[in-house]
UniProtKB/TrEMBL annotation:
Gene Ontology molecular function: any one: transmembrane transporter activity
Keywords for this protein: Cell membrane, Membrane, Transmembrane, Transmembrane helix, Transport
UniProt xrefs under InterPro entries: MFS, MFS_dom, MFS_trans_sf
Transmembrane segments: 29-48, 60-82, 88-107, 119-139, 145-167, 179-200, 206-226, 246-272, 284-304, 311-334, 340-364, 385-406, 426-447
Domain Major facilitator superfamily (MFS) profile as annotated: residue spans: 1-453
CDD domains attached to this UniProt entry: MFS_MMR_MDR_like (cd17321)
Name of protein: EmrB/QacA subfamily drug resistance transporter
Compartments, record wording: Cell membrane
Amino acid sequence: MLVGGFNQSSLNVALPEIAHDLSASADQATWILLGYMLASTGLIVIFGRLSDMLSRRRMFASGMLLFTLASLAVGFGTSAWVVIVLRALSGVGAAMMWSTSGALLTSSLPRMMLGQGMGIYYAASSVAQLIGPVVGGVITDTLGWRWLFWVNVPVAAVATYFAFTMLRKEERPARTGRFDIGGAVTGFAVLGSVVTTLSAVSGHGWTNPTVLIGLLLIVLILPVFIFRERRASAPLLDLGLFRERLFAWASLASFMNQFVRFGLLLFIALIYQTLYGFSPTQAGLLVLPIAIGTLLSSPWAGALERRVRSAVISGVGAGLSLVGVALCATMIWLPHWYLVVALGGFISGFGGGMVITANTSAIMRQAPSDSLGSVSSVRVMIQSLGVAFGTAGVLTAVAAFLPPAGKAAVYAGHNGVLSATARDGLSYGVPLTLGLLAMASVATIYASRLAYRGFTDDLHLGAEPKVVTAA
């Protein structure tokens, strides 16, 4: 989780240097990021299902090996398209790891320790988010962008060795069924369209032709995928999962939580660089408390689950997230109260870590042992989509009052070319965006309440959970 997260978060700051060194076009630079996102998000559910059929241990270890070799090779890339292909292969390896890591934790840890294990798992992700942009910038400026990938190799190689030699071997699955090839093809097409569309929205707005084509594909392919999965004897995605109250509403709470946490991070950094002249380093320091909050709360919430119900932890965390957004809203009237904004980010990140840890451990504790890979992969996919939707939603809201030229500049990150009129329009988008994030926080609270209604999980008493289906 740490290596994969660092690889993803550190690349954003190095992308201009990579594009310049490889003489990459704007589209090629976009695909250096998008190729990884497509593979890592679009293949998660497929590898989750395959891991249940074959071996989660081998899937994870093979993904770690592929990720290691691809990272090594990317550093030797001599053209943009070579780097794009190798980055996509890294994304395949990441999908193999992320689809199985939660399932391996669930099957390896005692039930009483699962929350704590998940907390450490998400803390590692926060560390990657925390150090990725800073360390990535330092490495790029001193050693060059190729070392961003090479520094992963020793750590990833050691992790690969331990994955093959120390992870507990699993019993052969009692039932596997046939692999749903049709579901895999249509499912990847849907997820690929969603990721590509949201990426295009973040870069060009909703009227871009790529966005319109992507939306059309989603409308056409999604019903085919759902129809196919309902009729399949062994579907890639068991749609019955969404009839279980805990899974459905806890997943929605996690989706909205990611929407708020990553949307708030992008929003604060964008506004303070654009309107108030912050450098990237200054903006990074201002949003740093969001990651620190999640880093501190995730393991704490996991340990707390041994004494306090997941419902309470998730609900309190969602409430804290709303409080954090409210504190950040002081920037509307008092933008120079930096400490208040930073405190709001910290509280929101702290609450977010509580939500994601509590909901994840609750979902995985009640998942059937022969479907852990599938359940875990769907959960990770939903959380990843929350990040993508949060990014697109924030950029859409903050640029809502800008003229077309101003929107294009903001979407492309060219903040220095904004006119005074465009800056005024951007300032009008500040309360709209904060309102959007506040509504998403309220939705997180509501979904957390519904998720645990009628759900009994007396973890500290050692009782087995009672799963309630959604109404």
